[in-house]
Amino acid sequence: MSDLDEFKATYFDECSELLLELEEQFAAIQDGDRDGDRLNAVFRAIHSIKGGGGAFGFDALVRFAHSFETLLDYVRDGKVELSEDVVVLCIRAIDIVADFVEAARQEQPLAPDYGAEEKAQFDALCRGEALAGAGAPDADDGLMDEFDLDFTPVMVNLEADQYEHPTTGASEQTVWTIRFAPFATLYERANDPLLLLRELALLGTMTVTAELAPIPALAEFEPFGVYCAWIIELASETVTEDAIREVFEFVDGDCAITIERSAAVASTLEPDEFPSFALLAEEAQAERTFIASGEPDEIIAEPALVAPVASKDVTGPSAVAPAESGGGRAVGMQSIRVDLDKVDRVVNMVGELVITQSMLTQQMDDAIRDRYQELVRGIEVLAQTTRGLQDAVMAIRAQPVKSVFSRMPRLVRELATRTGKKIRLETVGENTEIDKTVIEQLSDPLTHMVRNSADHGIEDVAARIASGKPETGTIRLSAEQAGGNIIIVVEDDGQGINRERVLQLARDRGVVGPDQQLTDEQIDNLIFAPGFSTVSEVSDISGRGVGMDVVLSNIKKIGGSVHVRSRAGRGTRMTLRLPLTLAVLDVMLVKVAGAPYVIPLSSIVETIQNSRADFGHMPSGGKVLQVRGDYVQVVDLAQRFAMVPAETEDNRFVVLCEAEGDSKIALVVDDIIGQQQVVIKSLEENFERIEGIAGGTILGDGNVALIVDVQSLQPGNAHRNAA
Amino acid sequence: MEAFGIRDDYADGAAGSSQNTLQLIAFSIDEQIYGVEITTVREIRAWNGATPLPNTREYVRGVINLRGTIVPIFDLRARFGDGQTNPTKNHVVVVMSVGEKWIGILVDAVSDILTVSRDDIHAVPEGNSNDTELLNGIVTHDSRMVGLIDLQAVVSGAKTDA
């Protein structure tokens, strides 16, 4: 991979994150949070996408992002009201930006006019027009009267923070006169003159004059026109022409630069009194040119460069820099981008370290303890550090579920728009952390579930009113940690599952036999059966009979389970139970025929000594366990795995496990050793999948133990081998 | 990657240690000597037990932990259809890579490293399909027959004839 490809890959990674952030911020904005920081965050995100896009020459993306950015800037400055319509437009724009990014990634250009409509709307909004046409835009006349024509230049601090000026005393200085006239392309590539000037200011004492004369009358003003140039007088003892040229190296070709050397003067600059903004503004308005000089702060007048004239403050992309160097960045956490593979390698190695450490600990006997006290102490410290390390490493992989939840608000909005329903989404516990691999697997199922709730659960407005419910339906998305599991609940206050219809359909399709009697809960869970769809009219959102069965299979794949409860007319609740991590598992270590096996703790309900268990015999020769009035199929693991039990029946144990849904299964094992955490290893990596086994793990003594796959030992499967 | 590199590489000899020679790790099962190309061998270790796998072929003795990776152990004697080995501490596991996977084979003893010429490799006489399936060829070393094991066949058989 070439360097450029790598940069590109990084850029696209960043874009995905930024788009997600945009999504999140706009979701909050739409919920009424008009905090300025949100707009700043949105602005930064779009700006970063644009900036990177410019560097790689994704012109279509840059053009669209630029318009979007301009609009956002207007919004931020309060010149365009952030109305509901504008928010909706912005959210659509995020989609379009995402499409552009995707197109750039795939190197498949979109239609040339893609997003043109939205772009036109941005531009219209920026011109102060109402959204989506108060008639045809009549931009040239009339409109102008509505604007406040005051032009107020704003001072910009040219120097970087903490910068200490190099020149203090009077000494021989060279004065350079630089004329810097940017072309439109400079702005299109997301460069900012302010940054260049700031960099220049580091070279010496600087006085900047803006050439404002070329700015045309308002009526002729081109929104994207470039009218401003700067004359910079830079006084320094040391600076060379090359050093100045270097500052402008990145915008070479996008601007006109002339550099002249003026006479050497003795620096006698006295620190001027800092002029007040109001005074400066007045001055500027009066003269339309504006010079300010002084130490330690230089000031520059920056007129509206890119944006139209109706501005009170600095507008255009040039305003980005102060926002960024201000509070914005410090707020975000510092982070680095690391390949997940690398993290996994660390996780694996730490797993090995834990095992080695426990092996060392096991080697210590009393003789060693007496003789080598220092060694023993060292090993104890090692044990602590290792555990700490393991926790720390797992925390690296953990991420808040927010990254998945934040995709849902837009989904719900879109669904609401398309179905004409009113739906509100509530999210709770979005900071709950889960392993990254689980999060990745979560996105699709959750999307289907939310979709299902919006489409099938929530009724339309009329139906809701008729049944005395509030017009707006609520979907509640919550996440919480419960022991080694994460529980994610998707709840709605809709009509609930129509059991009669579900059952009828299930019978029609042969999912359920004609005589089979099902409990309400069993009927509810039928919606996860493959090829099942209850809505007679297939909508384009859900109801194609794919979806809910995908949910189930995806969730099962990562060792989770799905549950549905519904109350007619009151709503539906779907509960997802997921393991916290896929890499580390809390298990119970057992022995079967002398070999070690582990059973995931999350699926164990209780353990009973065989001699105390209440068994019943079935005609087939199989056994059932009676536990609190329930009869549970018994699976003897030794028999099931075709091995000979090492213990007499009475000394063996029953491990009652919860399999899918509420179904239980009782596993008979020879012995119970204890509980521990294990790192899951694949058997398939070097071998193949084995029925009834979910994987392997390495125990403290270095031996391999097999992980029992409770799901696949389900009673239905078990019958074959039992007896 | 062809496990043994012989079927394909007879002519060009690129896989050998030098131009036209082949280095083998030789090991024995009962009196018979077999060999595998030395480049596929990753490690030789004494038998130290293995965790048995349920519901699998009799020649899959189980899995071991090889520095954090789970590696299956194939009992070569059982694979040849001569019944399971009754392993002791003196038995040896030869760990090697077959394609992407690492496997171990349980043998009685490792005897030697042999250098043979590719030209001396004989085809396996037609007759018993088991022989032709599991052996790539036969070479003579010190007037003794050395069977060249087709590792791919040893492993892939585990998938098909369940």
What tags apply to this protein structure?
heterodimer, A: 723 residues, alpha+beta, Four Helix Bundle (Hemerythrin (Met), subunit A), 5 domains, six-stranded antiparallel β-sheet, six-stranded mixed β-sheet, 26 strands, 39% helix, flat, disordered C terminus, B: 162 residues, mainly beta, OB fold (Dihydrolipoamide Acetyltransferase, E2P), five-stranded mixed β-sheet, 4 helices, 10 strands, 44% strand
Structure, described:
The complex is a heterodimer of chains A (723) and B (162). Chain A is an alpha+beta fold and 723 residues long. Chain A folds into 5 domains: 3-137, Up-down Bundle (Four Helix Bundle (Hemerythrin (Met), subunit A)), CATH 1.20.120.160; 154-330, no CATH class; 340-400; 402-579, Histidine kinase-like ATPase, C-terminal domain (Heat Shock Protein 90); 584-721, SH3 Domains (SH3 type barrels, Roll). Chain A is 39% helix and 22% strand. In chain A, strand 12 and strand 13 (485-492) form a beta hairpin. In chain A, helix 1 (3-30) runs antiparallel to helix 2, helix 3 packs parallel to helix 5 (116-126) and helix 16 (436-457) runs antiparallel to helix 20 (548-557). Chain A is flat, with a radius of gyration of 34 Å. The two termini of chain A are 59 Å apart. Mean pLDDT of chain A is 75; it is low at 132-149, 160-170, 266-275, 286-331, 535-545 and 717-723. Chain B has a single domain (6-160), classed as OB fold (Dihydrolipoamide Acetyltransferase, E2P), CATH 2.40.50. Chain B is built from 4 helices and 10 strands. Chain B has helices at 6-9, 76-79, 129-134, 151-160, and strands at 21-29, 32-37, 41-46, 60-66, 69-75, 92-98, 101-107, 109-117, 135-141, 144-149. In chain B, the strands form 2 sheets. In chain B, strands 8-1-2-10-9 form a 5-stranded mixed sheet. The longest helix of chain B is centred in the last third of the chain and has 10 residues, at 151-160. Chain B is globular, with a radius of gyration of 15 Å. Residues 1-17 and 158-162 of chain B have low confidence and may be disordered.
